[in-house]
UniProtKB/TrEMBL annotation, chain A:
Protein name as catalogued: Sigma-70 family RNA polymerase sigma factor
GO biological process, one term: DNA-templated transcription initiation
GO MF annotations in UniProt: DNA binding; sigma factor activity
Positions of the RNA polymerase sigma-70 region domain: 27-92
Domain of life: Bacteria
PANTHER family the UniProt entry points to: RNA POLYMERASE ECF-TYPE SIGMA FACTO, RNA POLYMERASE SIGMA FACTOR HI_1459-RELATED
Family designation: Belongs to the sigma-70 factor family. ECF subfamily.
SUPFAM superfamilies: Sigma2 domain of RNA polymerase sigma factors (SSF88946), Sigma3 and sigma4 domains of RNA polymerase sigma factors (SSF88659)
Keywords: DNA-binding, Sigma factor, Transcription, Transcription regulation
Any Pfam family: Sigma70_r4_2
TrEMBL record, chain B:
Entry keyword annotation includes Membrane: yes
Keywords, ordered alphabetically: Membrane, Transmembrane, Transmembrane helix
InterPro entries named among the record's database cross-references: TPR-like_helical_dom_sf
Membrane-spanning residues: 86-105
Protein name: Tetratricopeptide repeat protein
Length: 191, 242
């Protein structure tokens, strides 16, 4: 009992730190179950993968935001995926597509069903930032990824990018400034 | 978000340290206290946090794709994950071979014949992708790697839906036999042998014969082997009769 508890704590911590090994192990453990569930319930391979990955991101985000502090991450992830699939089956997009093309509707899953005002706002912010990120230069993107996601040290990163640590540090600052202004622009254009 | 100018580098780095869990307890509580008292700082922090998470999320999504592709080709994973030195593997194999040979000469004649003739069916080539048979081939990969129990549990899930699929029945039998569960193997092979159209009919009869042989039941073995119309079975029948 104490052991499972410890293991659960380790997984939560691994997610918080973006630990690749922990996340991959969870992915490999939970995906087959989600896949079986979706295939049994009128879904196909592509849908299983999409729903599962959305659920994975949501699970990871909730851990980061402190909404999930301790407990069994795998069970939690499975529940999120299952609920997402239920939501999808109930959504109007699914009903619309039953008789037509059953492949092409996956892109809309995320925005459905119509969320509350504030959730919508949050979603818009998020998608503006993702667009901004895709417009950011390759250098910025990989620098930010190595530092924020992979959690590598500034020394290591500067070596890999072939620049002095101080200029890598400056560049990181400039990149975030640029990312912010780009996403503000994108958001303002949408309004 | 508002459009005012961006935070200072120092601010950014403080936010980063907080978000990356690099603050000690004292710094963290000091930082949280400052946030409480300074609405503007709070607003800047929330904005930065959202940007920070968006970078992380984009990277995570890339990572998920690579997790997924490793899921589809487990062979890549096994070559990467093993760190045993080659000589250790060689030593283990040698010990196993010696033990195997020793066992071979200890066993009664039918067991000996079984050992001589039995090599697990090599399985079908696995083509991964979005095939509807994904589940079947996923288990095939386990089977080929010798993970018979895993393969069995995956195939049995499929079996619940397709009890008369002779390919499935044949490989369930093969997996059970390779795993040493002869009785179960025999009943799965039965399903194939009884089906005149089954494409694995000969193979199933041959392996069913071997399974009986392993059980020490020569009569039943002969009966099964006679149903297989291939050279190997005829040869084995001859040896059994001698």
């Amino acid at each position: 009992m104490g052991n499972t508890h410890q293991k659960a704590g380790k997984t939560v911590n691994g997610f918080r730190k973006n630990d690749s090994e922990t996340m991959q192990a969870t992915y490999q453990e939970v995906y087959p179950k989600v896949r079986t569930h979706i295939l049994k319930n009128n879904g196909n391979e592509d849908q299983a993968k999409d729903i599962f990955q959305e659920a994975f991101v949501a699970c990871w985000r909730n851990i980061k935001d402190g909404k999930f502090l301790e407990g069994n991450v795998s069970g939690y992830l499975f529940t999120i995926a299952k609920n997402k699939w239920t939501d999808f089956l109930r959504s109007s997009d699914y009903k619309k597509t039953i008789n037509t093309d059953s492949q092409s509707f996956l892109t809309v899953v995320q925005d459905d069903p119509i969320p509350k005002e504030d959730i919508l706002e949050e979603e818009q912010n998020r998608s503006a930032m993702q667009t901004a990120l895709s417009q950011l230069g390759e250098n910025c993107r990989s620098l930010l990824k190595m530092f924020y996601f992979e959690r590598r040290s500034m020394e290591e990163i500067s070596k890999e990018m072939g620049m002095a640590p101080s200029s890598a540090r400056n560049q990181k600052y400039r990149c975030m400034e640029k990312l912010r202004s780009l996403s503000l622009q994108i958001k303002n254009n949408e309004r | 978000m508002n459009d005012s100018s961006y935070i200072s580098q120092e601010h950014q780095e403080t936010f980063e340290r907080y978000l990356m869990d690099q603050m000690d307890d004292r710094e963290r509580s000091q930082f949280l206290e400052n946030l409480e008292q300074d609405a503007q700082l709070m607003q800047q922090f929330n904005e930065f946090k959202a940007l920070f998470h968006s970078v992380e999320e984009a990277a995570l999504r890339e990572e998920l794709e690579s997790f997924h592709s490793e899921l589809e080709s487990p062979s890549k994973k096994t070559t990467k994950g093993r760190t045993f030195p080659i000589y250790k593997i060689a030593a283990v194999i040698t010990v196993l071979v010696v033990m195997g040979l020793w066992l071979l000469y200890q066993k009664d004649p039918s067991e000996k014949l079984y050992q001589e003739y039995f090599t697990a069916d090599p399985g079908l080539p696995t083509v991964m992708g979005n095939s509807s048979n994904y589940a079947f081939y996923e288990a095939m990969v386990d089977y080929k790697q010798g993970h018979y129990k895993t393969a069995i549990s995956k195939w049995e899930q499929l079996w619940a839906q397709k009890k008369d699929n002779d390919t499935l029945n044949y490989f369930l039998g093969s997996a059970y036999l390779a795993d040493g569960e002869t009785t179960r193997a025999i009943s799965f092979f039965d399903l194939v042998v009884e089906n005149e159209q089954a494409s694995f009919k000969n193979e199933a009869a041959f392996y069913q014969g071997l399974a009986h042989l392993k059980n020490g039941d020569t009569q039943a073995a002969l009966k099964s082997l006679k149903k297989a119309q291939d050279e190997k079975s005829r040869e084995l029948i001859k040896k059994l009769k001698d």
